[in-house]
Each structure stands twice: as C-alpha cells, then as structure tokens.
C-alpha cells in the first residue's frame, strides 16, 4: 500500500498535520496530540453503521457508511484540499486501528490528487507508542515539587516559571481539573485518562532539561490517576512549601472560581459534594453566602473548615528542602528558582 507511515517516522516533522477521521465523540475522548478532526462518520452515523455491522452484515454496514460519507464528501474534500494545497501540510490520516475509515478516505483522496499519508495501526498504535515509551522518558527527570495550602497560587507560579523558560508539568491543566471536590467548577469536563497521559507524555518528551517544576498533587486528580512512575518520581523530588496569608489565598480562589453567573451556580451545586465531610447546616450556610455575593466569607470558612484540614492531612509530613513565606511574589519566585540553580 502507498504512503503508509508509522508514528515515529513523522512525529517530529513540523509541517506534518494529523487528521483524525473518527467521529467527534471519539476525537473528544482522546486523540493524537495536535490532531484535527475531519470525521468520516458523525456520532449517530457511526452508531448506526456499527449496529448494522453487528446485527446485519458487513456489506450492509459498508453500504450505509458510503451513503453517509457521500452527503458530506464535498465538505470533507474541501477541508483536506485546504490543508494540502493552501497550507502545504503533510497530511496523515488515522482512525481507530488503521482500518476502513482511514483506508477509504486515504484511497479516495489519493486518487483525486491529494497525496495524503495513512498512519499504520491508527490511534491504537499511537497509544502503544506512548505506553512503551512513557516510563523511559520519565527516568531522568528530577522534579521540583511545589506544595502549599489551597489558594497559594501554585499553578500561577508554574505558569510564570514556564514564561521564564523553565520546564514545568501542569498536571491539573493536563487533567482539566483542580483535584478537589469543587475542582471542576468553571473548567468543564475533566479530561479522559488517555488525554491526560497524552498531554503529560508530550510535555515531558519535549522538555529542554531534566529538571521539571510540578505541583504537589494527590495521586488522583478528579477521575484521573497519575501513573505510578511519575508519582513515585515526584515523591523523590525536591519539595518546596509555600505559605501565604488567608486573605491572599482568598483573592486567588475567588478570581479562579467566580467567573460569571454560570460558575456561581456550578459552585453552589458542587458544594453538595462536601456534605459527606461537613454538616448539612454548614454547607447550606456557605451556599447562602455565595448566593448573596459574600464570596470572601464563604471562601475563608471553606478553607478553615474543609480545605486546610484536608490538605494538611495529606501533605503535612513531607520533608521540605525550603519553606517560603510569600511576602512578595517576585521574591518567592526567586527563592523557588534558587532551588533549581542548586540542582544544576
């Protein structure tokens, strides 16, 4: 077969674009890093074809699939034509296993003069590549782990360190979740485990050095589980504790959680999750504070009665190479960077 490539052959090519021809639902659940979605079948169409494949026959399923594809073929062709002729990209198509969907669109486009490539083995082989190499790319990493109570701004410190050219690993960003029972507020759905692992893998793969800043986390972030080889490496890393006033922490949390009316309603609903840890009466009081706009009062109460005790219970026995009391964020950053300089 013509123009079939393996992921390792093209993964570092700058002009290469991966095109996921699976359904939007499959694409959203997990895909190759940086891939765009040009679906051969939409979600309901894929479901129907799959049903026919199982309950009827392969021939009937293929016939129905061709019927669906034909309706959108001009649109599909235009999207590929733009990538190939206008943007001058090396287009690599893939589906779940390198089967019917990617093979059919690959052959059709090739016959029409658009010289696309097909990824051997599809998304399954991409996952195999990650699984086989993940542990390896992590072995030489030395983590500097930032700890501190909720609201000290650990994520903000990481982002600033990255802006200054340091390697970071934002696990909460990769998970799209902050880790607590209220951790999804204003963020949307938590990423899938596969998407999380994809984000982390490529972040570590493309690092500039072996010293990486990361935030101290529980092993679980929302529905995500941090792989053992990363977690164990974090536990061996140099640990920094950042302390800050409850007022500063409140300011950061309010800015992070209170975005608009939707986020306020979402936060109030999410507070139901902590009734197993706090009394019904207390949670109802916090909900009323938020409804009335008393965000700071609710924030302070939640930190003193829920977040701080929970956090200290999980992280209070760590051995820290440095304890920093934040008076000035620039000075705090300088103190964090000092640990990095001592490790070079």
TrEMBL record:
GO terms for biological process: tRNA wobble uridine modification. InterPro entries: AAA_SelU (IPR058840), P-loop_NTPase (IPR027417), Rhodanese-like_dom (IPR001763), Rhodanese-like_dom_sf (IPR036873), SelU (IPR017582). Transmembrane segments: none annotated. Keywords: Selenium. It comes from the Bacteria. One of its GO terms (molecular function) is tRNA 2-selenouridine synthase activity. Residues 12-135 form the Rhodanese domain. Pfam families: AAA_SelU, Rhodanese. This is tRNA 2-selenouridine synthase. It comes from Clostridium thermobutyricum.
């Amino acid at each position: 077969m013509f123009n079939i490539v393996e992921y390792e052959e093209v993964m570092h090519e700058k002009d290469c674009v991966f095109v996921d021809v699976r359904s939007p639902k499959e694409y959203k659940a997990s895909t190759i890093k940086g891939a765009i979605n040009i679906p051969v079948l939409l979600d309901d169409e894929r479901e129907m074809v799959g049903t026919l494949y199982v309950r009827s026959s392969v021939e009937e399923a293929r016939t129905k699939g061709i019927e669906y594809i034909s309706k959108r073929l001009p649109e599909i062709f235009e999207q590929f034509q733009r990538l190939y002729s206008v943007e001058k990209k090396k287009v690599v198509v893939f589906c779940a296993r390198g089967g019917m969907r990617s093979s059919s669109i690959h052959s059709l486009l090739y016959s029409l003069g658009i010289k696309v490539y097909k990824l051997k083995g599809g998304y399954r082989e991409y996952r195999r590549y990650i699984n086989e190499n993940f542990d390896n790319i992590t072995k030489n990493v030395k983590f500097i782990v930032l700890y501190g109570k909720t609201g000290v701004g650990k994520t903000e410190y990481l982002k600033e360190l990255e802006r200054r050219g340091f390697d970071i690993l934002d696990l909460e960003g990769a998970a799209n979740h902050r880790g607590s029972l209220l951790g999804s507020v204003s963020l949307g759905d938590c990423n899938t485990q596969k998407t999380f692992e994809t984000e982390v893998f490529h972040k570590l793969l493309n690092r500039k050095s072996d010293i990486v800043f990361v935030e101290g986390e529980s092993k679980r972030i929302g529905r995500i589980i941090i792989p053992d080889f990363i977690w164990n490496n974090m536990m061996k890393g140099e640990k920094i504790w950042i302390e800050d006033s409850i007022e500063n922490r409140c300011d950061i949390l309010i800015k992070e959680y209170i975005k608009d009316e939707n986020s306020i309603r979402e936060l109030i609903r999410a507070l139901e999750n902590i009734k197993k840890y706090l009394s019904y009466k207390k949670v109802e009081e916090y909900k009323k504070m938020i409804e009335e706009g008393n965000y700071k009062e609710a924030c302070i109460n939640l930190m003193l009665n829920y977040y701080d005790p929970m956090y200290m219970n999980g992280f209070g026995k760590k051995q820290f190479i440095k304890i920093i009391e934040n008076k000035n964020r620039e000075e705090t950053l300088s103190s964090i960077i000092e640990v990095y300089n001592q490790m070079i």
